Amino acid sequence: RERVREILSSVRDRSDNRLGVEAMEIFDAYGIPTPEGRVVDDAAEAQSVAEGIGEEVVLKIVSPDILHKSDIGGVKVGVPVAEVGDAYEDLIARARNYQPDATILGVQVQEMIDLDAGVETIVGSHRDPQFGPLAMFGLGGVFVEIMEDTTFRLAPVGADEAREMTAEIDAAPLLRGARGREPVDLDGVVDAVRRVSQLVADFPSIVELDVNPLVATPDGVRAVDLRLTVD
Ligand code: ADP
Ligand code: MG
Q1: Is the CB of 115 under 6 A from ligand 1?
Q2: Does residue 72 have its Cβ closer than 6 Å to ligand 1?
Q3: What is the average pLDDT score of the chain?
Q4: Does ligand 1 have an atom closer than 6 angstroms to the CB of 120?
Q5: Using a 6 Å cutoff on CB, does residue 225 contact ligand 1?
Q6: pLDDT tens digits, residue range 89-108?
Q7: What is the 198 CA–ligand 1 centroid distance (Å)?
Q8: pLDDT digits (tens, 9 = 90+) for 109-128
Q9: Which structural domain range is residue 180 located in?
Q10: Which of the listed residues 77, 108, 227 should we mutate to test ligand 1's pocket, taking the one with most ligand atoms within 8 A of CB?
Q11: 36-72: per-residue pLDDT in tens?
């Protein structure tokens, strides 16, 4: 709690009030699983972090000025460890090219989650002026706006309510394992929805929070992309 408070108040002092990768630490404090990884600011370091993670990693540009990373080619999935150095330089170049005056904090080197066995979901919250914090769950990924398959409750939600949410979206059969696929770790999804809703209920300064995607696989869930706005 104390650590979360510290992180949130440090954001308030900055010119922009959004948190991305820094919010990973908040999630750790709330027991919401995140992938292994770190933010680095040179190619050699990217390489050595990647070596500690696995044979392939994901690289993402980290910049407060770039909200949708994949829109500018700022996310590279399945990068073999030997190519991490070059991929690092390429990501920085793309970001500079896209917006020459962007503040670039570095590159996030992240564990690769097996999406073939998984479902990209979205878990989030925003503060409704009338009802207060809402918990949101739905189908996630880069096409969320097009799919619009989400459901809402007042936050915080308990386990039963969170389970209802996972059952009532159109994509629910995907979570249960459609067409011979293995079901995802539904308990893990339910727990993540519950914990995210508790986090926003505990900290009224969080006005908006999006985990997109929370990747759900048969082995568990991972919050791979976070965005958090503080007022
Ligand atoms: P943004 O939403 O800013 O474009 P994301 O971090 O959500 O950036 O990455 C975009 C997409 O890349 C995700 O929706 C997912 O399909 C894929 N992706 C991101 N991180 C991982 C990861 N660690 N493992 C596997 N796929 C990933
Ligand atoms: Mg995303």
Answers
A1: yes
A2: no
A3: 94
A4: yes
A5: yes
A6: 999 999 999 999 999 999 99
A7: 24
A8: 999 999 999 999 999 999 99
A9: 2-33+115-230
A10: 77
A11: 999 999 999 999 999 999 999 999 999 989 989 999 9
Centroid of chain to Cα 124 = 10
- The residue whose CA has the least distance to atom 17 of ligand 1 is 77
- For residue 70, give the CATH number of its domain: 3.30.1490.20
Domain count, the chain: 2
Ligand nearest to the CA of 123: 2
Question: Does 208 have pLDDT greater than 90?
Answer: yes
